[in-house]
Design goal:
Order of helices and strands: EHEHEEEEHEHHEHHEEHEEEEEEE
Number of strands: 17
Helix content: 10-25%
Structural class: alpha+beta
CATH topology of the largest domain: TIM Barrel
CATH class of the largest domain: Alpha Beta
Number of domains: 2
Distance between the termini: 29 Å
Largest sheet: 17 strands, mixed
Shape: globular
CATH architecture of the largest domain: Alpha-Beta Barrel
Strand content: 25-35%
């Protein structure tokens, strides 16, 4: 009997809702007030956003009340970008927390300079998770995050694998090296794409998540995020991703390449024109414990699934 391994994004009940999880306003270092940020995302066809202004004393430790901007077709999730403690390079941690309570207690973070008596990054991340938030390691490449740094954030749900603001502002958008290393070490993490929009440059409407939920409510979306019922994208649509009969099977909007990615050097792609379905053989992934999909369209835009855990315990030697 053929074993089929699936993802909750494609098996859970409901529909997909488009949202940005990393957004800034004039409540910190963004250039637009919250109401205009939300108006623009709503006008662009988004279903929800999380306004995540910088949670430091310089800005009054904001968790912006976006409840008044919710209506019957658009919602918001309260959140913030948390900062506390130094990474290995001596700079302050950046940790994305979506679904924070309004009374989440500040750390001693008056500015973007680390202090010796602050909570560490791992400590404030764990406290945010305990408070009910969905927590992600923000922009690993931009931050100069080391693998040791990343290993220390044991409470995180996700890694930000594409950050559009970092793509347009400094060409450091990538979080895949860190994410894949943690996955290789067995961390059950998910993968998010975001804007990190400040509206001071073309840093908006470039990366988002599609969340599967029966309702477009903060509670339902947050539960779906924690359950991994979403995928990340720059535009292409994923309609199904599963492992079946030794293949990664992907159904999607028109694509030029469908890639299966796993442990170490394990990866294999199929290519074509206007592909809407692909079956990628997994032999080249060397018995990887996880496999994730990337879909690339003719314009170079990408979509990424969360990893499917295969149950394998160790990779085989490389197969050429």
């Amino acid at each position: 009997m053929t074993q089929i391994l699936t993802l909750p994004a494609f098996t859970a009940p409901g529909r997909f809702w488009r949202g940005n999880l990393h957004t800034h306003s004039t409540r910190s270092d963004g250039v637009l007030p919250p109401e205009e940020v939300i108006r623009r995302y709503k006008a662009e066809g988004y279903d929800f956003i999380a306004l995540t202004d910088h949670f430091v004393g310089h800005y009054g430790y904001p968790i912006v009340d976006t409840v008044p901007f919710r209506d019957n077709r658009f919602t918001t999730i309260l959140g913030a970008e948390l900062h506390s403690g130094a990474m290995a390079n001596g700079e302050l941690w950046h940790i994305l927390a979506v679904g924070l309570p309004e009374d989440f207690a500040p750390s001693n973070s008056p500015s973007f300079l680390p202090l010796p008596d602050q909570e560490t990054g791992p400590q404030i991340a764990a406290r945010a998770v305990a408070a009910g938030a969905f927590v992600a390691v923000a922009h690993p490449q931009w931050s100069g995050l080391t693998v040791e740094d990343a290993r220390s954030i044991t409470a995180a749900h996700a890694v930000e694998i594409y950050n559009h603001g970092c793509a347009t502002g400094c060409d450091r958008a990538d979080g895949f090296a860190i994410a894949d290393q943690l996955l290789t070490e067995g961390r059950k993490l998910t993968l998010i794409a975001t804007d990190d929009a400040h509206f001071s440059e073309p840093d908006h409407f470039g990366g988002w998540v599609m969340v599967k939920s029966q309702e477009n409510t903060p509670e339902a979306l947050l539960a779906a995020l924690k359950a991994g019922a979403f995928y990340a994208t720059q535009g292409p649509e994923l309609r199904d991703v599963r492992v079946e009969d030794g293949h990664l099977v992907v159904e999607c909007s028109a694509a030029s390449s469908i890639v299966a990615i796993g442990w170490g050097t394990g990866a294999k792609a199929v290519h074509g024109h206007s592909l809407t379905r692909g079956e990628v053989p997994l032999a080249r992934l060397n018995n990887s414990p996880f496999v994730r999909a990337a879909v690339i369209d003719a314009a170079g835009k990408r979509a990424w699934s969360n990893p499917i855990w295969t149950g394998a315990t160790a990779p085989n030697p490389r197969i050429a």
